[in-house]
Design brief:
The chain is built from 7 helices and 7 strands; from the N terminus they run H-H-H-E-H-E-H-E-E-H-E-H-E-E. The protein has 218 residues and is an alpha/beta fold.
């Protein structure tokens, strides 16, 4: 197993390939999150991936790779699970506000511990089913600018469960492996006012297909 310095170097190399200029302090926090994830995974079964090197490639860099597509200030991570992509994104984008939502109490308990012990001030942890989640509307918040999902559900079901959450300029980012052709065809048929764009995402050191489906209003 690599030590913390070796993991940090691996993360730094990955960030360079993604053309992300993250301060070393932020990169260290990301590694600290990785170590907490590995520690809690022993009893909470947060992720099937336990090798720290694979956590960096399959989870951390995979999450950071969608930064160029994040829109606006208020971001919702639906089905955040172990905090992916929400925790890496919130650390990399401290000027934005993130809500990490999940219906699994064990996972939200872990997320609350991470946010508290690491003093991540721009995240709110919510234990709730997304269709029942009602954020507080205020002068500074009138719906989410970006809604992101990773291994959550089908595109159609995601749209149906989140209809009450976006603002008029919101984009839905659905992180996928292979291009979900049938799911996209269903959206094009049922959601005539939606524009669907698919981007190929290159994650450093990850020899697997990654695509980002971006859904916006036409």
């Amino acid at each position: 197993m690599l030590n913390s310095n070796e993991l940090l170097l691996m993360l730094q190399n990955g960030c360079k390939k993604l053309q992300l200029n993250l301060a070393e302090g932020i990169q260290i926090k990301i590694i600290n999150y990785l170590l907490l994830l590995k520690k809690w995974n022993k009893t909470y079964n947060l992720t099937a991936i336990d090798d720290p090197k694979e956590i960096i490639t399959h989870h951390i860099l995979d999450s950071l790779a969608i930064i160029p597509y994040i829109n606006g200030t208020n971001i919702l991570d639906v089905g955040s699970g172990a905090g992916l992509p929400g925790i890496p994104l919130s650390l990399a984008l401290p000027q934005k506000k993130f809500v990490l939502l999940d219906s699994n109490i064990k996972k939200t308990r872990f997320l609350f511990y991470v946010a508290t012990t690491m003093n991540i001030g721009n995240v709110e942890i919510v234990h709730q089913r997304v269709e029942n989640y009602q954020p507080k509307i205020s002068q500074n918040f009138n719906g989410f600018d970006t809604i992101v999902t990773r291994a959550f559900s089908s595109l159609q079901e995601t749209l149906e469960k989140t209809r009450h959450l976006p603002n008029k300029n919101c984009c839905l980012l659905a992180m996928k492996g292979k291009i979900p052709i049938e799911e996209i065809e269903k959206i094009n048929k049922n959601e005539m006012n939606r524009q669907v764009t698919v981007y190929n995402i290159n994650v450093p050191e990850l020899n697997e297909e990654r695509h980002l489906v971006v859904i916006t209003l036409k």
